[in-house]
Amino acid sequence: MITNLTYQEALDELTDIISRLESESIPIDELAQKVKRASELIQYCQSKLTSTDSEVKKIISQLEDKSDL
Question: Residue 27 — left, alpha, or beta (φ > 0 → left; ψ -120 to 50 → alpha)?
Answer without folding.
Answer: beta
